[in-house]
Structure prediction request, 388 residues.
Amino acid sequence: MGHKERRAYLDEIRSRYRKAHKLLKAKILDEFCNVCDYHRKHAIRLLGAPFRRIKAKLLKKRGSKSIYNKGIIIEPLTKIWLATNQMCSKKLKVALALWLPFYEAEYGKIPDEAKAKLLAISPATIDRLLKPSKIKYKHKRLCGTKPGSLLKNQIPIRTDNWDIKRPGFCEADTVAHCGNSLSGDFVWSLTLTDIFSAWTENRAIWGKGSGDVVDKIKDIETKLPFELLGFDCDNGSELLNYNLIRYFSDRPKARMIQFTRSRPYHKDDNAHVEQKNWTHVRQLFGYDRFSNKALVPLMNDAYSNECSLLHNYFCPTMKLVTKERINSKYYKKYDFPQTPYHRLLACEHITDEAKQKLTKIYNTLNPFTLRKRIENKLRVIYKTNNLT
Prediction:
């Protein structure tokens, strides 16, 4: 029975209940509880209370009146949320200010009242408004890291704390596009993340050959807006190899790179890049198996162009500032969400020339256009993958 039906039924029996004798009241009360599924004490209060009080109880919604007109703001909010790969509310609040001007250019002008409310909206309200649209994903996960024990003694475990107040110290990892089986050959994604700015670059490789890995790292290094100072990876054989050691060691002393590895079976040692494996790789390509070698140039085209520009210029990230354990609970504090681009602009270790170059690129971009190009390239990639 719905809310309105219960109220109508209550109005019908209230007068009869009040005029009835004790035995009849008990029968009416039993009937009312059975029909409306009320607790007996609650039903007695409803039947015995004044009409105005009952009406207020049944109709009045608790809490302050909502100031958000869902019909006006829910459409732009949902479209921006989907375009940012379902970004969390705390980061989405910052992203709204970056994406709204481009949204108006793409979909038409938003009323000033709706725009002001979108810019002032809180993360909790974003979660509440987007609750009907949220989607839950369940995936099977496989680990493709096989230990490279031969070179473990030559590549030290990182025990000192890097100077993460400046860009250049990066973590690296690989992601297997193997589907449900690690057998055979398939495409891997290489991810490199700067700890300070969260600037992230991805490249696709066929298999785990050390030569291809080094070539892709060289390509990434030429595209970074800062100088590479440190390189930390897990214990996979694709990264612990002689080719990579020579690439980092055969350099002038002024350009030497600190090459370290994480502790075996401690994924938290590379927490920054592990998180990017999800937001930059899995959210884009999922867990399908890519066993067609022709996919590598197509994926690299998307990775090095639209994906890099979208994530680094328009997707804010949060950095952990403090982590404290009190009794059995951990209390974490994060800084204000910023895009990697804005973190680099505020960094004193980036030259003015590099900042001007970044700003020049930023002024030519539209995140919705980048998102559409990514979707078009994904269609080609999945179509090519289905040909195998």
Summary: Residues 295-314 form the longest helix (20 residues). Residues 244 and 337 are 34 Å apart (CA to CA). The chain has three domains: 3-59, 70-133, 149-386.
